[in-house]
Amino acid sequence: MKVSTGIADGLPPANVFDRMCPSRGVLEHVTSRWGVLVLGALRERGYRFSELRRRVSGVSEKMLAQTLQTLERDGFVRREAHPVIPPRVDYSLTPLGREAAELVAALAHWSEQQVASVVAAREEYDGRAATA
Q1: Any idea what the Cα angle at residue 118 is, between residues 129 and 43, rounded to 5°?
Q2: Are 38 and 71 spatial neighbours (Cβ–Cβ below 8 Å)?
Q3: Helix locations, the chain, DSSP H
Q4: Euclidean distance between CA atoms 14 and 61, whole angstroms
Q5: What is the pTM of this model?
Q6: Which residues touch 16 (CB under 8 Å, ≥6 apart)?
Q7: pLDDT category, 5, cuts 50, 70, 90?
Q8: What average pLDDT is seen over the chain?
Q9: Given a cut of 60, is residue 2 above it in pLDDT?
Q10: CA 91 to chain centre
Q11: For labelling, which of 36, 45, 48, 112 has a CA lying 20 to 30 Å from the CA of 106?
Q12: Which region holds residue 60: left if phi is over 0, alpha if psi is between -120 and 50, else beta?
């Protein structure tokens, strides 16, 4: 599948700041709360649905199913259904998904490293707001 950059095929170049640009939807899917966590978990290894739900603590079955379907549609996740009883479905990253997962994992790691600074900034802000 060829992805357009807009230069060679006459389409305007992708611009995430343009509300009509499809790249904005891609960014939304990858950086949503559950999108980041699902990509991060699948970066570790492939998972069955129930395993993935346990790994991504707090996600509902419905939200996980929707997130996986969206990420599969966008080409980030591979869904492999096995013809066995009981049914078994495995989820893993595609090469495109692995690339996206590496990027959001860096942001997630940064968030973990900076949480103390963010909490301190919030407390300082709240303290100023309370006295204003």
Answers
A1: 145
A2: yes
A3: 22-31, 33-44, 49-55, 61-73, 95-131
A4: 34
A5: 0.85
A6: 23, 24, 27
A7: low
A8: 92
A9: no
A10: 14
A11: 48
A12: beta
Distance, CA of 93 to CA of 44 (rounded, Å): 10
* Beta bridge partners of residue 91, listed in sequence order: 47, 79
Q: How many CB atoms lie within 10 A of CB 129?
A: 8
Tokens of 38: 């699902």
With tokens 């479905």, the residue in question is 89
Q: Would you say residue 77 has pLDDT above 90? A: yes
Domains of the chain from N-terminus onward? 22-131 (1.10.10.10)
Q: How confident is the model at residue 34 (pLDDT cuts 50, 70, 90)?
A: very high
- Of the candidates 67, 63, 1, 78, the one whose C-alpha atom is nearest the C-alpha of residue 31 is 67
The Cα 4–Cα 38 span in angstroms is: 26
Q: CB–CB of 14/5 below 8 Å?
A: yes
